[in-house]
Structure to design on (469 residues):
């Protein structure tokens, strides 16, 4: 079993989602000792909106705003002290459903504005050197990266033998970018290519480890990434158009646990203009992978990445022809040849700034959307930090995740049918858990979390079914 999570990052900044923490603080100061249901609802909406890029940027840039948010949390804890008691008797003061909802909302607000936000600030701060100039785009990017890392750490419960983190940078082919591309000798360091009027660069970081704890692999990956000055400088320069970010964690059900079998699985060792470079991220099994190998058209003088040990790389081979990633018809034809239960993502130099998302069989693939961008993950809990609503991708369907589609409806198509569908806001389903529920919090291991929080879980369940007179 594997975990996949990702998004497409662009430099667009949604100012409409900006909220005012100062007015929230003033309202809290002016309110009574006990918060009303309406006030709790307003605070909850504020804390959800405060997850957006523009609000995080303001928080990061302003010490005054950070202090204001800290004051909000302290006042909130004080005013809701009785509400946050975990004993069943406290529910006599409220109707059962009302008390459960109010208590959970307050706990979420405190978690979002205290633990989650502070941890995000600390994460981004590690990439910003003291007294060094940085752009808002950098803050946006590292905030987004934090979301992906937090997501893949949760998805490691699906398997943690290896972790791969991939960035596909797309730059305009202008004079300045071309000069930087040549002088930095990008082709010698990264899997890169100049395609039409775009410069496409893939930065991939991998690690494997059979023994260890959840989150250890991402720590290794981040240290490697942080030391890659060329890529860090590219991010800080803002000279890119978009960055596709995909992370993959794996349980080695097929193939050895080694560097070669870490996703993304790439069809080429070195880019060429003969065929596109294809990077695949797979969860599931391709039963007819040997048949795909046998039917491959192997071109002369192409430095293929040959790996017949595992089935997943067959997906990269399958799209190793020109124009297979350019039209819906070609994508459908290629995906329809796969036999197996599989979900995954593809990146191609033939159509940069787009991620192919598909689901064939029973494996999971969920989509999430907030005010800033789309996300995708192989489990819904990989999305809940940034998206409180998710969409379970239809079986035997695919979609092209486009950098320009962040503000529009995602379109999906049938693999073995002529199905066409726009996923609208109303199609997303609200999730019943939050990042507070799935976080390891202060516990060293998830097992300890389950032991110590078992009382809260049992009480919460009882409250929904037992009416106290």
């Amino acid at each position: 079993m594997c975990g996949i999570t990702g998004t497409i990052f662009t430099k667009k900044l949604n100012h409409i989602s900006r909220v005012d923490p100062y007015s929230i603080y003033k309202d809290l100061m002016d309110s009574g000792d006990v918060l009303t249901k309406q006030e709790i609802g307003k605070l909850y909406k504020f804390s959800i909106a405060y997850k957006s890029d523009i609000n995080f940027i303001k928080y990061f840039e302003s010490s005054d705003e950070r202090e204001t948010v800290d004051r909000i949390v302290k006042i909130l804890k004080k005013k809701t002290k009785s509400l946050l008691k975990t004993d069943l008797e406290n529910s006599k003061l409220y109707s059962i459903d009302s008390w459960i909802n109010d208590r959970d909302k307050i706990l979420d607000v405190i978690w979002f504005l205290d633990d989650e936000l502070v941890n995000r600030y600390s994460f981004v701060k590690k990439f910003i050197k003291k007294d060094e100039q940085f752009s808002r785009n950098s803050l946006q990017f590292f905030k987004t990266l934090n979301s992906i890392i937090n997501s893949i750490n949760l998805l490691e419960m699906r398997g943690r033998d290896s972790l791969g983190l991939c960035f596909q940078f797309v730059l305009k082919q202008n004079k300045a970018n071309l000069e930087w591309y040549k002088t930095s000798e990008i082709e010698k360091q990264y899997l890169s290519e100049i395609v039409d009027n775009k410069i496409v660069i893939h930065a991939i970081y991998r690690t494997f480890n059979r023994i260890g704890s959840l989150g250890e692999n991402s720590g290794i990956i981040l240290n490697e990434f942080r030391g890659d000055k060329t890529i860090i400088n590219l991010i800080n320069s803002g000279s890119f158009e978009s960055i596709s970010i995909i992370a993959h964690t794996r349980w080695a059900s097929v193939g050895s646990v080694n560097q070669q079998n870490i996703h993304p699985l790439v069809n080429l060792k070195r880019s060429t203009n003969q065929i596109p470079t294809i990077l695949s991220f797979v969860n599931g099994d391709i039963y007819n992978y040997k048949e795909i190998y046998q039917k491959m058209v192997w071109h002369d003088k192409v430095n293929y990445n040959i790996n017949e040990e595992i089935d997943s790389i067959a997906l990269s081979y399958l799209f190793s022809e020109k124009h297979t990633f350019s039209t819906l018809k070609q994508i459908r034809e290629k995906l329809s040849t796969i036999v197996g239960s599989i979900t995954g993502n593809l990146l191609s130099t033939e159509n940069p700034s787009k991620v192919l998302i598909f689901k064939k069989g029973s494996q999971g693939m969920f989509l999430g959307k907030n005010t800033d961008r789309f996300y995708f993950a192989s489990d819904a809990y990989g999305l809940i930090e940034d998206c409180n609503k998710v969409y379970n991708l239809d079986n035997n369907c695919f979609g092209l995740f486009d950098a320009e589609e962040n503000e529009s409806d995602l379109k999906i198509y049938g693999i073995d049918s002529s199905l066409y569908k726009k996923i609208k806001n109303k199609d997303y389903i609200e999730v019943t858990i939050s990042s507070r529920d799935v976080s390891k919090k202060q516990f060293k291991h998830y097992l300890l979390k389950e032991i110590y929080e078992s009382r809260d879980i049992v009480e919460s369940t009882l409250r929904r079914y037992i009416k106290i007179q």
Remarks:
- Confidence is low (pLDDT under 50) at residues 93-97.
- The chain is about 40% helix and 20% strand.
